[in-house]
Design a protein that fits this description.
384 residues; 2 domains; CBS-domain; 12 strands
């Protein structure tokens, strides 16, 4: 999940997060509508009125983005793929799945559900604008027509055949169905996404340099994001190929040493820490639920005042992305986890209870062994 995202509730049981950059999108769209799109031949209207209509239309468009992502999530859950969350941000939305579709048909259904939703919203808005034309305020009609056009463009753009776009998922499903090899299909889709990203960067550069269009900078940003995301998916496909069907439960440390959030730091240092052999510990509440992470470095850098408090006050919060399940694919987790040696860990949970941990050492060990073509074997317990 993107940092600085705030929870906005649940829709159909799926958590929705809003990133701060969404405000930039809202302001940009509202400004474009108020100054360039909405008809300005009505001299009796104030700039504030145009901005009000533009802001409302921009907000409705963001709701349509959420509907696009929600369609992905609903179909995914129906097909047995859990959804972690939906995040709306500067360049659109992301549905974070906690698994993979079981077959190409399921992949295709999940991929097409978003663009079809946007296309439906777009056509409905354009029809509404046509019906209302000459019957209601032209500014309102123009804003509805823009909403329809924007959703149609969104649907068409997302069907470009390259990961991480929805069209890349469609391409992945087609390649997977033809070859029967999920991983090679993912690699092919990611390479196509890299090419599309490069093409958008080049097109944006031409617009910015030769045409003096600010839209070129937006295209370059979008192309850079697509290329970066496609590179990440290509690396993830390579990692999945190496790791095969390994799951988090195959490498996690069971019954890990934990620190109690309500314990005094002084008591922990004197009575508990000497019996532990690891460098990083999950911090749990009274019910055994992981709420934070604590390392030896955190303890060594704590001031005397901090050491007079509780473990919970000294621990760093455990982000949602650091909570995983034993059945999660290890390659998927490894591709998204940013674990600093001796500082961070993944808490493996069953329901809300912690049942194991995965550290950076665990991930490095399995990556090195699989890269050498060696089977993974659980090593004997050793200090972390």
């Amino acid at each position: 999940m993107l940092k600085w995202s705030i929870p906005a509730g649940r829709v159909f049981g799926v958590r929705l997060y809003l990133h701060w950059s969404l405000l930039v999108t809202l302001a940009l769209i509202a400004g474009i509508l108020a100054t360039s799109v909405l008809p300005t031949e009505f001299s009796d209207r104030s700039a504030a009125e145009y901005w009000a209509v533009g802001t409302l239309a921009a907000a409705v468009f963001l709701v349509s983005l959420a509907a696009h992502e929600m369609a992905h999530s609903i179909v995914a859950v129906r097909d047995g793929v859990p959804v972690e969350r939906i995040t709306l941000w500067l360049l659109g939305g992301m549905s974070e799945l906690r698994g993979e579709p079981a077959d190409p048909r399921s992949e295709l259904r999940i991929a097409l559900s978003g663009p079809l939703t946007s296309l439906t919203i777009g056509i409905a808005a354009l029809l509404l604008a046509t019906v209302l034309n000459s019957h209601v305020d032209p500014v309102v009609t123009a804003s509805i027509a823009w909403l329809g056009t924007a959703n149609v463009v969104l649907a068409v753009f997302n069907l470009l055949p390259g990961a991480p776009l929805d069209g890349g998922r469609v391409l992945h499903a087609a390649l997977w169905r033809r070859s029967g090899d999920r991983l090679s299909a993912a690699a092919g889709s990611a390479r196509s996404g890299r090419a599309i990203g490069l093409a958008l960067i080049a097109l944006g550069a031409v617009q910015a340099v030769f045409l003096g269009s600010g839209a070129g900078l937006w295209l370059m940003l979008l192309g850079w994001f697509l290329r970066t995301a496609a590179n990440a998916e290509l690396a993830s496909a390579s990692m999945r190929h190496q790791m095969g069907d390994l799951r988090v439960g195959d490498i996690m440390t069971t019954s890990p040493d934990v620190a109690e959030a309500n314990d005094q730091v002084s008591t922990f240092l004197a009575d508990v820490l000497p019996t532990m052999h690891h460098r990083t510990f999950p911090v749990v509440d009274r019910q055994g639920r992981p709420v934070g992470v604590l390392s030896l470095r955190d303890l060594s850098r704590a001031s005397a005042a901090d050491r007079a408090g509780t473990i919970g006050s000294l621990a760093r919060p455990l982000p949602d992305s650091a909570r995983v399940h034993r059945d999660d694919h290890l390659a998927t987790v490894a591709a998204s986890a940013m674990l600093r040696p001796g500082l961070d860990l993944l808490a493996v949970v069953d329901g809300e209870q912690i049942v194991g941990v995965v550290t950076s050492t665990d991930l490095v060990r399995v990556c090195e062994r699989t890269a050498l073509g060696l089977p993974f074997r659980r090593p004997p317990a050793e200090p972390e």
